[in-house]
Structure formats: structure tokens, C-alpha cells
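Appendix C: a fully annotated inverse folding record. The material below is reproduced so that readers can follow the format used throughout the book. The structure is listed first as C-alpha cells, followed by the designed sequence.
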């Protein structure tokens, strides 16, 4: 494939107030990356819809709210073979991207997982990637959206989208990437690949986040209901009783997950 033809779109989700700083950062990164990479910024909570380019970076302004809506708009608008979903607080590692482009331009995979490093300690990782050596069904519960690189034509032809009930700004705050991965790799039998190099950095300072753990458990129940697996009740019990750092009681965990799961399981 010609170097002049973009291979990868890095689709970054943000909101209006964060857009200026993001564009300044991406403008610097744009100078360090080959033309095989295209930046697509989805900026939500804007006063009106708009489509424009700034410093060679494509920007879509949207009045909508919700991370999954942003990801879905990126799927619709991406013109390259691959799209990589990113948040506005990541830091790309430019000298690793050329290797990623080389890998993507030659693989037969439909979804590729890359590795994310720790912003506070670049010698560490965002998570324990040794735990990724499991069957795809169980890997569905471990992936993060910023690790997902998907073949655009595959997800569009299979009509796979992020569930807009899930994710920040949606009814439930998480698990959108887990269901998306499941839909691509398990439900639609997409080929799964791994790029072993660390391609970007993200904060691992979770103590600074305002996390509503009870609603996250509700999101897990919804996820299991959408999957429709016979293992769902056992997984709910396991997630309810296992040791956790959150302050949600085991009974509350079970109730939060089971309510959402049962509502979907009995819908039809």
C-alpha cells in the first residue's frame, strides 16, 4: 500500500471544553507521524454540528452527548481501512506507530488489540496483559476501548456498533467496549490479532476518578444480558462474591447486576 494512502484513523473522542488543548497536542503529533495516519476528532456538547479541518486534522463537532455515540460517528465517517478508538487524555508514542501501520497493512485480522502503557510510569502497563491469554469470550470482559483497532469495512458490513446505552454519557457508564469486542470477535467471528508493542500511554491513577461502582455493576448485568450466554448467572455470582476494592456490598453487587441482566433475559 502506498505510503501516501492513510491506513489508520485515530478517532479521538472529546468534548467542547477540551478541544483546544487536544488540537494543540495532536498538531504536534501530526508532525511526527507519517501520512499513513489520519486524525479524526469527534467533539461533543457543541452548540451546533460542524465539519472542518484544522492543521490537517479532521474535526466533527456534534451537539450530542455520549461516548458510544462518538465512537459510532467515527465508524460512519472513517475513510481508512482501520480505525483506532481513543480518548482525549492519551499520549501516542510516535516511534511505535510505524510498526503498527506495517502490521495493520499486512494482517488478515478484523480486530487488533494493542498495548497501552502507564502515563505515570512508562515502564509499566495500563493493565496486566498476561491475563489476555484466554478464550475470546472471557477476553471480552478484560479489554479497554483504547486498545481496540478494528477493520472499518468489517464492522460496517456486519452492522456492528457500540451500544449507546453504555459508556460515559449513556444510561450506564461502562462496558461498551466489552460488548463491542464480543459482537466483533465472538458473535460475528471476526479474526483477532495482537500488536505486542506499547503504542500509547494512559493514566493509571484511578484514585483520582469519580467512579459510580454501583452503576458499573448495573452495566455488567446489562452486558451479560446482551450476550445471552448460559454462563451469565454463574458470572454474576462470581463478580458478586469475589474480593474487590470498591465499597459496594456483595448483595448490592448481585442485585445491581441481576436486575439489568434479567430485564434483558426476559424481554423476549
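Designed amino acids, in order:
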Amino acid at each position: 500500500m502506498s505510503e501516501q494512502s492513510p491506513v489508520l484513523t485515530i478517532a479521538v473522542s472529546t468534548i467542547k471544553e477540551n478541544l483546544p488543548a487536544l488540537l494543540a497536542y495532536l498538531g504536534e503529533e501530526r508532525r511526527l507521524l507519517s501520512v499513513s495516519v489520519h486524525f479524526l476528532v469527534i467533539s461533543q456538547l457543541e452548540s451546533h454540528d460542524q465539519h472542518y479541518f484544522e492543521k490537517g486534522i479532521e474535526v466533527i463537532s456534534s451537539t450530542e452527548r455520549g461516548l458510544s455515540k462518538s465512537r459510532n460517528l467515527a465508524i460512519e465517517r472513517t475513510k481508512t481501512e482501520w480505525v483506532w478508538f481513543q480518548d482525549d487524555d492519551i499520549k501516542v508514542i510516535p516511534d511505535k506507530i510505524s510498526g503498527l501501520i506495517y502490521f495493520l497493512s499486512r494482517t488478515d485480522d478484523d480486530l487488533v488489540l494493542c498495548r497501552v502503557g502507564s502515563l505515570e510510569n512508562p515502564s509499566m502497563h495500563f493493565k496486566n496483559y498476561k491475563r489476555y491469554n484466554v478464550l475470546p469470550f472471557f477476553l471480552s470482559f478484560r479489554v479497554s476501548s483504547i486498545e481496540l483497532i478494528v477493520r472499518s469495512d468489517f464492522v460496517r458490513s456486519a452492522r456492528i456498533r457500540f451500544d449507546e446505552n453504555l459508556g460515559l454519557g449513556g444510561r450506564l457508564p461502562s462496558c461498551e467496549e466489552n460488548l463491542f469486542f464480543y459482537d466483533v470477535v465472538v458473535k460475528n467471528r471476526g479474526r483477532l490479532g495482537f500488536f505486542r508493542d506499547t503504542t500509547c500511554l494512559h493514566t493509571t491513577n484511578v484514585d483520582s476518578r469519580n467512579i459510580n461502582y454501583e452503576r458499573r455493576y448495573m452495566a455488567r448485568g446489562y452486558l451479560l444480558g446482551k450476550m445471552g450466554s448460559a454462563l451469565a448467572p454463574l458470572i454474576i455470582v462470581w463478580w458478586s462474591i469475589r474480593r474487590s476494592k470498591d465499597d459496594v456490598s456483595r448483595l448490592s453487587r448481585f442485585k445491581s447486576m441481576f436486575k439489568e441482566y434479567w430485564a434483558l433475559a426476559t424481554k423476549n
